[in-house]
Design a protein that fits this description.
Blueprint (H helix, E strand, L loop, with lengths): L2 H14 L3 E2 L23 H5 L8 E9 L1 E2 L2 E2 L13 E10 L4 H15 L7 E6 L3 H11 L4 E3 L4 E3 L4 E12 L19 E14 L5 E14 H8 L9 H14 L8 H19 L8 H19 L7 H12 L5 H4 L1 H29 L7 E2 L1 H11 L3 H10 L3 E2 L1 H27 L21 E8 L2 E3 L1 E2 L4 E6 L16 E5 L2 E12 L2 E8 L3 E2 L3 E6 L1 H24 L6 E7 L2 E7 L6 H16 L4 E7 H7 L12 E7 L3 E4 L14 E10 L2 E8 H4 L1
Parallel strand pairs: 1-2, 6-7, 12-13
Antiparallel strand pairs: 2-5, 3-4, 5-11, 6-9, 8-9, 9-10, 10-11, 14-15, 14-17, 14-22, 16-21, 17-20, 18-19, 18-22, 19-20, 23-24, 24-29, 25-26, 26-27, 28-29
Bound molecules: glycine.
Glycine binds next to strand 10 and strand 11.
């Protein structure tokens, strides 16, 4: 039975038993307590808690999950046994106040023993120590005595939220395989493998650990598809099942290396990480230095290290992605529709880390002979992190092979010192620029027509803490020009990125643009020498500009939608507009309901679909007021103002950059809504391809 067969059999069984079959939810959960969807039930938390209506009393699906951070984290174990994955598929069925313990256990048992035909004698069941009811049901249905366990048989997705006792079914691979019964000291040996978990969701746990009964008694089950495949294909190692065998062949074809007992961990890690990275990016995660973006970056870099162990140079996961699409694209069409985008993002990540990986490994190898007591000094791990982009867990993974570890305390001390230095740096350069009283205000009047390519004169160069006449390739600098089309961070909108050119040659990569008073400061790294008086062509990264513009216009639509759905008193209290993402703070006295959030999101998407014209006009403040343009609470405006109007739904005073038609926003999706202080709520929203 292949993966495709098992998915079909599972869903057909539950459909025949009155369940509504729903597609997998996104890996990015609508839940601030989790980085990723860690189980099928994540999308139903609100239903269990009684704040959302169920779409049907019985539901089933196959859910994409990632467990690589927080309470559920299997990252460190991947590669070293045959059972762990960061990405996996979870088969699940749910009852929302419909059947309870008896119904759930009956169906699990029937599907396992009658439908997929497992030998009942090979199934061992466990129940929670307190759960006499489930124990009696097992006895009645199967004649089996359950093993009663405590902590293993209590389940929740996060530290807080719905939870309850559970009963697990384990498959026995037979006495030839080492390992003991569940709950015994050698339970991890591999003989008994958990194949299904029926959770009886009865309680809500708060931050202090208090349990409150949920409004209804629910069932939440989860079964690892990879483990079912292993059992049904009689493989002790999940990575030897059909799907993984095909992915591993793709790794062999790409690297020219055959799998052996010795290099098997690298094959497992690469195929596992291909799935985690590929699926996460297809769902909109962008590798970055924070939160889930950093988890994905770390996983990708770990995979590259294992490519290097196999002697492979160059692109790895981006080259393997088509094999993933071939294997799983029919079950998950988003892998296909997002293929171009995913491959491009992985390629960028791989290209930017490739040299760092080589050079970092050289540094690490030169340090190893000096290591005492098998502990690498934290300072070296920090240098690997800071200069070569090695996440701490990557260094630890490399050292694990050599039975070494990192001095984590001294690593953390270095991290803390660096944070303090960089905080001082930001304050420092602002003060330094403020001391340049002779510097004229930057003419940035062309910032709204981003495409100008007029040359501009370099007026001032700051390198470190020193203003210099010229600087060299590799220098981190801040530069002021006489005029610029770059938008410097203001009004909540983050500044532009881009390059400076001389002729066709790039001389500087601009990573951020800020404003100090009336001076626009371009911050970045030189790739060619630059001197005061040079004429450069400032060229904006138009992709990032467009992503920021659509986020900004979407912010205006969001405000209009909030006023329509909640009430006219809702007012903006702050915002951060970044490429494809919006953070919007507003005055409102209570949490929004799920329906209200949905109505706001639907309204914004309706206006996007209507492709309303967005006009950008400059006028005097009186005319703007007559037009009914909304002003920002507590903001001071000059005599001349810009008015941004989207169809007849929004009219605001605003100095930011915007799209010309709302259709350019593509899509908007509300990710979170929470309180940040009394009477002030915060919404985070994605737009554009990220929201898609
Ligand atoms: N939600 C049940 C499980 O993950 O085991």
């Amino acid at each position: 039975m292949t993966y495709n067969d098992i998915r079909k059999i599972f869903l057909t069984y539950f459909e025949q038993h009155g369940h509504k079959i729903v597609p997998s939810a996104s890996l990015i959960p609508n839940d601030p307590t989790l980085l990723f969807s860690v189980a099928g039930m994540v999308q139903w938390k609100g239903v269990f808690q009684g704040t959302e209506q169920p779409i049907a009393p019985r539901v089933a699906n196959v859910q994409k999950c990632i467990r690589a951070g927080g309470k559920h984290n299997d990252l460190e174990d991947v590669g070293f046994d045959g059972r762990h994955h960061t990405f996996f598929e979870m088969l699940g069925n749910w009852s929302f106040g419909d059947y309870f313990k008896e119904g759930a256990i009956e169906m699990s048992w029937e599907l396992l023993t009658k439908v997929i035909g497992l030998d009942p004698n090979r199934i061992v069941v466990t129940t929670h120590i307190s759960d006499d009811e489930a124990t009696a049901i097992w006895k009645k249905i199967t004649g089996k005595d359950a093993i009663r366990l405590d902590k293993d048989n209590w389940w929740s997705a996060g530290e807080t939220g719905p939870c309850g006792p559970c009963t697990e079914m384990h498959y026995d691979f037979g006495p030839d395989v080492p390992g003991g019964l569940p709950g015994s000291p050698d339970e991890d040996g591999g003989r008994f493998v958990e194949i299904w978990n029926d959770v009886f969701m009865q309680y809500d746990r708060d931050a202090n650990g208090n349990l409150t009964p949920l409004p209804k008694q629910n069932v939440d089950t989860g079964a690892g598809l990879e483990r079912w495949a292993a059992v049904l294909q009689n493989k002790l190692d999940n990575y030897d099942t059909d799907l993984f065998a095909n992915l591993k062949s793709a790794v062999s074809d790409l690297t020219g290396v055959k799998e052996t007992e010795e290099n098997k961990p690298s094959f497992k890690i690469i195929t596992d990480h291909l799935r985690a990275v590929g699926f996460a990016i297809a769902d909109g995660v962008i590798p970055s230095n924070a939160d889930r973006g950093y988890v994905i970056r770390r996983i990708l870099r770990r995979a590259m290290r294992h490519g290097q162990i196999l002697g492979h140079k160059g692109e790895l996961l981006s080259a393997l992605y088509p094999a993933l699409v071939k294997e799983m694209g029919d079950a998950y069409p988003e892998l296909k529709t997002q293929e171009k985008h995913v491959v491009e993002i992985i390629k960028n990540e791989e290209n930017s880390f490739a040299d760092m990986l080589q050079n970092g490994m050289k540094l690490l190898e030169s340090e190893l002979p000096k290591v005492n007591n098998n502990i690498l000094p934290g300072e070296i791990a920090f240098k690997l992190f800071d200069t070569y982009g090695f996440p701490l867990d990557l260094t630890q993974m490399i050292l694990r092979d050599k039975k070494m570890d990192v001095d984590v305390d001294s690593f953390e001390k270095c991290m803390k010192e660096q944070k303090e230095r960089s905080r001082a740096d930001t304050r420092g350069t602002r003060v330094l620029w403020e001391s340049q009283t002779d510097l004229p205000a930057t003419d940035d009047s062309e910032k709204y027509e981003a495409e100008t390519n007029r040359t501009a004169k370099v007026l001032s160069i700051l390198r470190g803490e020193e203003f210099v006449k010229s600087a060299n390739p590799g220098d981190a600098v801040e530069i002021a020009l006489d005029h610029t089309p770059f938008y410097g961070t203001q009004g909540g909108q983050v500044g532009d990125m881009g390059v400076f050119k001389i002729g066709d040659k790039i001389v500087m990569n601009v990573a951020e643009t800020n404003r100090v008073g009336n001076v626009v400061i371009h911050k970045g790294t030189l790739t060619e020498p630059v001197s005061i008086g040079d004429e450069v062509i400032p060229e904006i990264n138009l992709t990032v500009r467009q992503q920021t513009a659509r986020a900004h216009t979407a912010t205006h639509l969001l405000q209009a939608a909030l006023r329509q759905v909640l009430n006219e008193d809702v007012e903006q209290r702050g915002s951060k507009v970044a490429p494809d993402s919006v953070r919007f703070d507003f005055s409102f006295g209570r949490a929004m309901s799920a329906e209200e959030k949905q109505s706001v999101e639907d309204l914004v998407n309706k206006w996007i679909a209507q492709n309303l014209t967005v006009s950008h006009e400059e006028m005097d403040i009186e005319s703007a007021k007559k037009r009914g343009a909304m002003a920002l609470f507590g903001e001071k405006y000059g005599d001349r103002v810009r008015v941004i109007t989207a169809g007849d739904v929004s009219c605001e005073l605003c100095g930011g950059t915007h799209v010309y038609h709302t259709g350019e926003i593509i899509k908007a999706r509300i990710n979170k809504e929470k309180s940040i202080s009394s009477g002030i709520r915060r919404i985070t929203m994605s737009v554009g391809t990220l929201a898609e």
